[in-house]
Amino acid sequence: MILHLLLCLLLPLLPNSSAQTFRNITLGSALSTLDENPYWVSPSGEFAFGFYSIKGELFLLSIWFAKIPLKTIVWTANRDRPVEGGSKVELTSDGVLSLTNHTGGEIWRAESSNATNAASAAVLDTGNLVLRSSDLAILWASFDEPTDTILPGQTLDRGSKLFSSISDEDHSSGKFQLSVQADGNLVLQSIARPTEGTYDPYWESNTEDTQSRLVFNESGLMYLITPLNGTRFDIATEIPVSTRDFYQRATIDFDGVFRKYNYPKSSTNRNDQSWSVTWYVPGDICTVLTGNVGSGACGFNSYCVLGQDERPNCECPPGYDYVDGNNRFKGCKQTFAPQSCEKDQLRKAFEMRELVNTDWPLSDYEHFLNVDAEWCSNTCLDDCFCAVSIIRGSECWLKKIPLSNGRRDPSINGKALIKVGNSSFPTNNTSFPPNVLPTPDLHCNEKRERQHKLILPGSIIIGTSLFLNLLLLVIFLSTKHKNHKSNRVTSSSVEGNLQCFTYKELEEATNGFKEELGKGAYSVVYKGVLRRNAQGLIAVKRLTNIPEEVDKELKNEMRAIGQSNHKNLVKLLGFCDEGTHRLLVYELMIHGSLAKFLFEMPRPSWYKRIQIAIGIARGLTYLHEECCTQIIHCDVKPHNILLDESFTARISDFGLAKLLKTDQTRTTTAVRGTRGYVAPEWFKGKAITSKVDVYSFGIVLMEIIFCRRNAAIEVGREDPEILSEDVYDAYVQGKLQLLLGDDEEAKNDRRLERMVMVAIWCVQDDSSLRPSMRKVLQMLEGAADVPTPPDPFYLNSTV
């Protein structure tokens, strides 16, 4: 005991001792909102604890980053009960940290969970606020009661939760939570406010271990430790940076996305610096958040759109406005009068407005088949319960208020017809109930006379306008009829906003098809410059010498890409089908193919290769699961993966694509694809599924990892060396690094083995063992565990 007392006396005098990592807040110390600086800081000054001013005269008792211009809050004691001026926080004589308001009423307190009284408090340089006993044992810590953020050095144990805020300005508890559940699964869920009941997870780690805990270590790594399984599941997949050089935090933001942020410490004096997002889940909150109840990512009657910054934006449909202009996530309300159920009134009082690629998927009350857009629109217009009709192909859905889970995304591939008030109908702009007209006033005769004088010129104007409109309509239909004769494939046969080019136009754009970019069995690709619009550089694919069965390639490719819109797919701009000329026009990918990138240039960086692999997986997931019609690419290989200006992977060449209807999962067809990437079932006469693309992706993934071709002939060998076989042998023997040569980046990355295991799962001879592309993507991104793969070349007799 004497030795311990001596140490307590001597440690504060030692400048390099651990005791200097905090400053003691002694019993009786207090802060008031009336103080000039109402906060205590950590020894380094990087964190402050005290009163944070919000909304003018209200305060939160919080911890925030104190050295940067953005005083970002990381913890709050009274997030749902802000206090007014004159409030006070005090470490009382009995060791309780107590927050009282301006009238002396206690709002919040922190105290030891056992009988030991706190002797002091401290704000640590980790951002942790602690209460300590006289022997420096921690009796209470803010790290154990987090709000929406965790910091390096902090863990979330089983049962711990993070709750989002309502908005960037309102730090009250929001409608999303991150929690480590009792079974060890880390999940993101929306909350049924005002209760704390939760809906089904919209993202989860799929881990099972009753002792799991989420760790955000001081090296910037974030992972789940599963002690019972003896494994570590990496959550954040980006390459970590040092906490010596960057401030770091992970926050469940008010929009329901769990994001990891960095802020360079060297830029603390720059007012224009902001937090950089280095990793986040889920990838698209607009589309993944859904359920039978609840509003979705945005509020009721609104729809969610993913912005260019990959953050969700909430928008109102026509005829609606935000419930709260300061918080667009609270939903939208109608701006027109309520509906009457008399059909003649509905036709007069309401009209339909169109929104493309928009849907509220869980507000249906009617579903019709084999109808067109006009029928769908009129049916909603005549139904007083209908707020929106959705037309997709020949199917129609009627939806009622409130609209939920709204989203706008190219993968929806349909349009919404919104019922809104007709501005020309008088009752819409008055405060009178529907079907009740206002009483005429005594001064209306003068108004009638003015209106009568306007009838004759108005009728002439309207009559002339109708005649001109009819004339233009006749000219348009005549021109369209001529174009239909000269072009066998018209814009009506291709879904999507594709342009129809003339052969002469493309001949001029390519300077007479002068600069060749690549060549295939039945096509040559040329570089061109498009002058009639802002598209700029283009790639023109000219199909030549095509047999009759391959002639379908043009329509296949236009249909496949014309209906698709994803950042990991090459964008088809238009086509030409004039006489014997068949050409497709794409945006030009300036960095060429992945094959050139991997095999004909100096070894690309490991980080870029990982991002390319994940990009390809995202593109294939979109084709397989997110298109309205499932698309099997059938020829996934490095030559068909192109790289744009930022080296983003773009899947191209859909000429062999097989499209499946929504009620199909298998098809039979002749062998397609490129040798070395073709799945075994092609040669066995078995039904073809999307798993053939999974197999091809597995081969490509191995090529990306090791920068080697799958089938390469070495000097002195007659048979090619098969990379997939070498990879599995090296994996089993624990010698993967021998295949990497001098690639130190890959050798030292803990993700190497996981990526190889994913690739081995993809190339299983038995297609039923291969995961779906969505599962592949989750495993690559670290959102799902990767079990030990079996021997992919073992031929099961039952297969």
TrEMBL record:
Gene3D superfamilies: 2.90.10.30, Bulb-type lectin domain, Phosphorylase Kinase, domain 1, Transferase(Phosphotransferase) domain 1. It is found in: Membrane. PROSITE patterns: BULB_LECTIN (PS50927), PROTEIN_KINASE_ATP (PS00107), PROTEIN_KINASE_DOM (PS50011), PROTEIN_KINASE_ST (PS00108). InterPro entries: Bulb-type_lectin_dom, Bulb-type_lectin_dom_sf, G-type_lectin_kinases/EP1-like, Kinase-like_dom_sf, Prot_kinase_dom, Protein_kinase_ATP_BS, Ser/Thr_kinase_AS, SRK-like_kinase. Keywords: ATP-binding, Disulfide bond, EGF-like domain, Glycoprotein, Kinase, Lectin, Membrane, Nucleotide-binding, Receptor, Serine/threonine-protein kinase, Signal, Transferase, Transmembrane, Transmembrane helix. The chain crosses the membrane at residues 454-478. Residues 511-794 form the Protein kinase domain. GO terms for molecular function: ATP binding; carbohydrate binding; protein serine/threonine kinase activity. One of its GO terms (cellular component) is membrane. It is an enzyme of class 2 (transferase). The keyword Signal applies. CDD domains: B_lectin. Belongs to the protein kinase superfamily. Ser/Thr protein kinase family. This is Receptor-like serine/threonine-protein kinase. It comes from Stephania japonica. The lineage of its organism: Eukaryota, Viridiplantae, Streptophyta, Embryophyta, Tracheophyta.
